[in-house]
Design brief:
It contains 10 helices and 14 strands. It is of the alpha/beta class and about 350 residues long. The strands form 2 sheets. It has an 8-stranded mixed β-sheet. Strands 3-2-1-4-5-6 form a 6-stranded parallel β-sheet, sandwiched between helices. It binds nicotinamide-adenine-dinucleotide.
C-alpha cells in the first residue's frame, strides 16, 4: 500500500483529494495519510472554487495528519510519495526536497517556470533513483488520447493542420493571488497554455521554431492572452491560442480542431466529433473517467509495478517548458521566430 502526502490543498490539490477518496473506495493500493497546506483555513473547509467542477466536496480532514510545514511533514511521516499541488514557483524546490528524502513525486504542471529548474528536478530524480511525473493531465484526457492515437495509427491519414484553444475567466481563487503574478505563475502562457504546448509536443513532436504574439492585460501578470504558430520542418500548420480574460458567462473551454488527409477531429464544449471525409460524422467511444483520475491511477500503477513513466516522462515535460520559454521570448520580441533548442 503506497502512503501519500498531498502538498497544497487549493483548487487542484482538492481535485487530487477527490481522486484519492475515490481510489481508496475502489481499494486501489494507495492511501492518503497526510496533507500539508500553509493556509490553516483550508483545513476548516474555507475554499474558493476554481474554473472547473472539481474539489467541491465537504471533506473530513480528521482522517489525515495535517501539517502547515512541508519540512515537518517530510520529517514526521513515513511516506512513499508526495503529490505536489503548490503554486508553480514552488514546484522545483519542493520536488527536489522530497526526492532527496527518498520519496517519489507526482508534481502538478507546469514542471517549473525555468528549464534550469526542470533540469534540477530530473537530476534529483535520477540521483535518488525515485520516479518523477508531472501532472500533464491532457495526456490522460480521453479526447486528447484519441487525437494522439489517430495521429499514430493514421486512422484519417496524416495530420495536416491543428488549432488548439484554452481560456475563460480570469482566475480569482489562488492563494494570495499568486496566479496573477508573473514571477509566481508565468501568466496564462506558463499556467494554462502550457497544457496545449505539452499536447502539441506530445502529439506532433517538438517544433523547430515558434512565433508568438501576446498581450499583458492584467497589470503585474505575465502574458494573459496569446497566439503561437508552431513551425515544423514537414510543413504541419499548428496554432494554439489562450486567453484567461474571457469573463461573463463564457465559462472555461478547452478545444481543438485537427485536420487530417481524410478527416477532421473537433473537440468543442467537451464533445469530441470525428468528421471522416468519406462518410458520416460520429462521436468516438471514449473512457468516461476524467483525466486527473486516470493520471493518478497511472502514476500509482507505475510505482506499484515499478514501471517507467512512459506516458509523461519528465524529460518531455522539461521540453515543454523549453518551448514555452521560446514562446515568451518571441512574444517579448513582437512575434519574431525563435528556434527551439
Ligand atoms: N492540471 C490542471 O488542470 C491544473 C488546474 C489548476 C491548477 N493546476 C496547477 O496546480 C498548482 C496549484 O494551483 P491551484 O489552482 O490549486 O492554486 P491554489 O492557490 O488554489 O492552491 C495552492 C495551495 O498551495 C498552498 N500553499 C502555498 N504556499 C505553500 C507552502 N509554502 N507550503 C504549503 N502550502 C502552500 C496554498 O495555501 C493553496 O492552498 C499550480 O501549479 C497550477 O498550475 C493544474
Amino acid at each position: 500500500m503506497l502512503k501519500v502526502g498531498l502538498i497544497g490543498i487549493g483548487f487542484m490539490g482538492r481535485g487530487h483529494l477527490d481522486n484519492y477518496i475515490r481510489l481508496e473506495s475502489e481499494n486501489a493500493p494507495v492511501k492518503l495519510v497526510a496533507i500539508c497546506d500553509i493556509d490553516k483555513d483550508k483545513f476548516k473547509g474555507k475554499f474558493v472554487p476554481g474554473n472547473i467542477d472539481v474539489g467541491n466536496q465537504k471533506y473530513d480532514f480528521s482522517k489525515y495528519n495535517l501539517y502547515t510545514s512541508i519540512d515537518e511533514m517530510l520529517e514526521k511521516e513515513d511516506l512513499d510519495y508526495v503529490d505536489i499541488a503548490l503554486p508553480s514557483y514552488l514546484h522545483a524546490d519542493a520536488t527536489v526536497k522530497a526526492l532527496n528524502k527518498g520519496l517519489h513525486v507526482l508534481c502538478e504542471k507546469p514542471m517549473a517556470l525555468k528549464s534550469e529548474d526542470c533540469a534540477r528536478m530530473i537530476e534529483a530524480s535520477k540521483k535518488n533513483n525515485k520516479k518523477l511525473m508531472i501532472g500533464h493531465c491532457l495526456r490522460f484526457w480521453p479526447a486528447y488520447e484519441y487525437l494522439k492515437e489517430c495521429v499514430e495509427n493514421e486512422k484519417f491519414g496524416k495530420p495536416v493542420s491543428g488549432y488548439f484553444f484554452r481560456g475563460g475567466e480570469t482566475p480569482a481563487w489562488s492563494y494570495e493571488g499568486w496566479l496573477l503574478k508573473k514571477e509566481k505563475s508565468g501568466g496564462a502562457l506558463f499556467d494554462q497554455h502550457v497544457h496545449d504546448v505539452d499536447t502539441i509536443n506530445w502529439v506532433f513532436g517538438k517544433p523547430s521554431k515558434v512565433s508568438t504574439i501576446a498581450k499583458v492585460v492584467i497589470e503585474g501578470d505575465g502574458y494573459d492572452s496569446l497566439s503561437t504558430n508552431y513551425i515544423y520542418n514537414n510543413g504541419l500548420v499548428i496554432n494554439a491560442q489562450d486567453d484567461w480574460t474571457i469573463n461573463g458567462d463564457f465559462g472555461f473551454e478547452m478545444s481543438f480542431r485537427v485536420g487530417f488527409e481524410k478527416g477532421c477531429l473537433v473537440l468543442e464544449r467537451g464533445v469530441l466529433t470525428a468528421y471522416p471525409y468519406d462518410g458520416k460524422a460520429f462521436k468516438p467511444e471514449l473512457p468516461k473517467d476524467i483525466g486527473y483520475y486516470r493520471e493518478m491511477s497511472y502514476f500509482v500503477d507505475c510505482l506499484v509495478n515499478d514501471k517507467p513513466i512512459c506516458a509523461a516522462p519528465p524529460e518531455s515535460s522539461m521540453e515543454t517548458i523549453v518551448i514555452a520559454e521560446a514562446e515568451e521570448a518571441s512574444a517579448d520580441d513582437m512575434g519574431a521566430l525563435k528556434n527551439i533548442k
